[in-house]
């Protein structure tokens, strides 16, 4: 099989010439569960969690790996990362609800977002959420009030925008000055946030947070963000006696979507983040804080593949051949939104040479609904099972019902067993919340 680096760890082609993941034949799964189908390999998810835990433990005893559940918010996966010792980051009341349903203890939950509503905050406070990452002055005041009216005290971090531009697609950069997120450093904004956070009667300001972007290959941006954060900590320490006990430096580690991608290993990422904090804090003569990171994509991205059934094949002589599949932008918007590149293969022809150049199109009524431009496949025919690897992060999470397409089923494979962790939506689900114009029909 070609392209093994972008597939889950146990992917291989079996004696039937099919793609198999951890003992499960993908063609068989497509038959049993239908397509489009998302298949996650349990081993890949657990393996990434363990790599993170091990890599950070090599540098410090005081750290926390927080799964950014926005990458794939799902009860079964939340339970898996909890079993692996991770904490969880939720960015809405809905993600909080999923984590809570999964049985996540409140003290391992971090609540993010630039516009958390009062209702969302109240819901999270009802459950005793461990940490709120405050994004604005309005939120700071609102949360202080809400917590106070309950006679409680809430641990909080402040989200800082360090003014560092990550090398990634501009839509997924978040640390630059012109960002909707967090408190910027210019004109003393972040300093003022720290002052207000410390002064707030019902908030316990335990630390700072920064996330500079996603799908980042070069680690130097993280190092610069740490320098900037520690500079701020030093300033606030001098001015207000601020003690930063928790330093959360976000997620962002990139993954391999295509053979050309060159992500950094988790071990290097851990070294840059922890040793970066250690060096900067030591230079400032301040104690080492607890180091927190929030990986999302790199936990689940490579664990997932999407299987589609090939339908229409349209050859435009001298131009290109469109191979249409039974999903597209409603289950993977990333190629259209971020110009994301993917690999592909035919699961039922895994052993055959990939000698036919085609363009894989979705089934939606839009010309932009192209999943992969110019990919080499074994000669495609209707009924083939086309697989796109590395679809585990931000695909189901951003799925929609566009064009009335029910969201796909999601199965988890492990040691030859496959089980549904999210059922396929039905047509009935599509209208379940709708009400007729005339009552009674
Ligand atoms: N922490 C915060 C505050 C975040 O905003 C994010 C991602 C993460 C952690 C996790 O970052 P990761 O380790 O996954 O890079 N939909 C886009 C990605 C958006 C990322 C949003 N924030 C995509 O499909 O590429």
Name the CATH superfamily classification of the largest domain: Alanine racemase
Q: Name the overall outline.
A: globular
Distinct small molecules: ligand LLP
Helix content: 25-40%
| Category by helix and strand content | alpha/beta
Radius of gyration: 23 Å
Mind telling me the CATH class of the largest domain?
A: Alpha Beta
- Unreliable stretches (pLDDT < 50, length at least 5) are none
Query: Mean pLDDT across all residues, rounded?
Result: 96
CATH topology of the largest domain: TIM Barrel
Q: Tell me the CATH architecture of the largest domain.
A: Alpha-Beta Barrel
How many E-type strands? 21
Number of helices: 12
Number of domains: 2
The largest sheet, given as strand count, sense and whether it forms a barrel, is: 9 strands, mixed
**Terminal residue distance:** 54 Å
Beta-strand content estimate: 15-25%
Description:
It is a single chain. The chain is α/β, with parallel strands linked by helices and 441 residues long. The protein folds into 2 domains: 160 residues, Lyase, Ornithine Decarboxylase, Chain A, domain 1; 257 residues, TIM Barrel (Alpha-Beta Barrel), CATH 3.20.20. The protein is 29% helix and 24% strand. Strands 4, 14, 15, 16, 17, 18, 19, 20 and 21 form a 9-stranded mixed beta sheet that branches. An 8-stranded parallel beta barrel has the order 5-6-7-8-9-11-12-13, surrounded by 6 helices. Strands 1-2-3 form a 3-stranded antiparallel beta sheet. A hairpin with a 2-residue loop joins strand 20 and strand 21. Helix 5 packs across helix 6 and helix 7 crosses helix 8. The longest helix is centred in the middle third of the chain and has 21 residues. The radius of gyration is 23 Å and the shape is globular. The N and C termini lie far apart (54 Å). Bound molecules: ligand LLP. Ligand LLP binds next to helix 10 and helix 11.
């Amino acid at each position: 099989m070609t392209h093994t680096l972008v597939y889950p760890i146990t992917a291989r082609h079996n004696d039937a010439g099919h793609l198999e993941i951890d003992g499960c034949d993908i063609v068989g799964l497509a038959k049993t569960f239908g397509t489009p189908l998302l298949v996650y390999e349990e081993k890949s998810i657990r393996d990434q969690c363990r790599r993170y835990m091990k890599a950070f433990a090599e540098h410090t005893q005081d750290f926390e790996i927080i799964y950014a559940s926005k990458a794939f918010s799902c009860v079964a996966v939340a339970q898996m990362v909890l079993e692996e010792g991770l904490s969880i980051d939720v960015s809405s009341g809905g993600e909080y609800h999923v984590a809570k349903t999964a049985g996540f203890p409140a003290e391992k939950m971090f609540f993010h977002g630039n516009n958390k509503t009062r209702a969302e905050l109240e819901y999270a406070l009802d459950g005793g959420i461990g940490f709120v990452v405050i994004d604005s002055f309005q939120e700071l005041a609102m949360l202080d009030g809400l917590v106070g009216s309950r006679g409680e005290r809430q641990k909080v971090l402040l989200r800082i925008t360090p003014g560092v531009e990550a090398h990634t697609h501009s839509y997924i950069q978040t640390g630059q000055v012109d960002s909707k997120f967090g408190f910027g450093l210019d004109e003393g904004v972040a300093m003022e946030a720290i002052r207000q956070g410390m002064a707030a009667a019902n908030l316990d300001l335990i630390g700072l947070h920064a996330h500079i972007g996603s799908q980042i290959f070069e680690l130097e941006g993280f190092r610069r963000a740490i320098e900037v954060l520690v500079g701020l900590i030093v300033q606030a320490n001098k001015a207000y006696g601020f003690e930063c006990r928790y330093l959360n430096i976000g997620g962002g580690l990139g993954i391999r979507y295509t053979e050309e991608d060159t992500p950094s290993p988790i071990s290097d990422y851990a070294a840059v983040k922890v040793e970066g904090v250690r060096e900067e804090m030591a230079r400032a003569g301040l104690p080492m804080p607890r180091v927190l990171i929030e990986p999302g994509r790199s936990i689940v991205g490579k664990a997932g593949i999407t299987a589609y059934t090939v339908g229409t094949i349209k050859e435009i002589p001298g131009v290109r051949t469109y191979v249409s599949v039974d999903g597209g932008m409603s289950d993977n918007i990333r190629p259209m939104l971020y110009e994301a590149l993917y690999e592909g293969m035919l699961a039922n022809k895994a052993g055959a040479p990939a000698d036919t150049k085609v363009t894989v199109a979705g089934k939606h009524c839009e010309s932009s609904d192209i999943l992969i431009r110019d990919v080499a496949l074994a000669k495609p025919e209707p009924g083939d099972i086309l697989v796109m690897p590395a679809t585990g992060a931000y695909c189901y999470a951003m799925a929609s019902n566009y064009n009335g397409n029910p969201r796909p089923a999601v199965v988890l494979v492990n040691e030859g067993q496959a089980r549904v962790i999210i059922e396929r939506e039905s047509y009935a689900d599509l209208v379940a919340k709708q009400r007729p114009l005339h009552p009674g029909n």
